[in-house]
Design brief:
This protein is mostly helical. The chain is globular and about 30 Å long. It is built from 4 helices and no strands. The protein has one domain: Orthogonal Bundle (Cytochrome Bc1 Complex, Chain D, domain 2).
Length: 99
């Protein structure tokens, strides 16, 4: 699935449906990885592996995913992700699933 199709699939998914774990994992690896490094160890953006995110609570990380970080290249994903999808990504990153 190409990047545009993946984003469209995520946006078109019903808001009440369970997050599509496979699609979100690909999103983390491809889209987040384009700035945070393909191994998520850092690049333009910082390391986002679990050991580097210990200062975050799940809600705080979800807010960063949804709203971005002003003054940095971290964009807001709120236009493309639901709250449930952002929560899934935060949990995925915080619990070391991305390693």
């Amino acid at each position: 699935m190409n990047k545009a199709a993946l984003i469209l699939a995520l946006v078109a998914a019903p808001a009440l449906a369970e997050p599509d774990a496979r699609a979100l994992e690909r999103l983390v690896r491809q889209d987040c990885g384009s700035c945070h490094g393909l191994t998520l160890k850092g690049g333009l953006g910082p390391d986002i592996r679990a050991q580097a995110l210990t200062h975050y609570e799940a809600e705080g990380l979800k807010a960063v995913i949804l709203d971005g970080v002003p003054g940095t290249p971290m964009p807001p994903w709120r236009p493309l992700l639901t709250e449930a999808e952002a929560a899934w990504i935060a949990d995925y990153l915080l619990n070391g699933e991305s390693e």
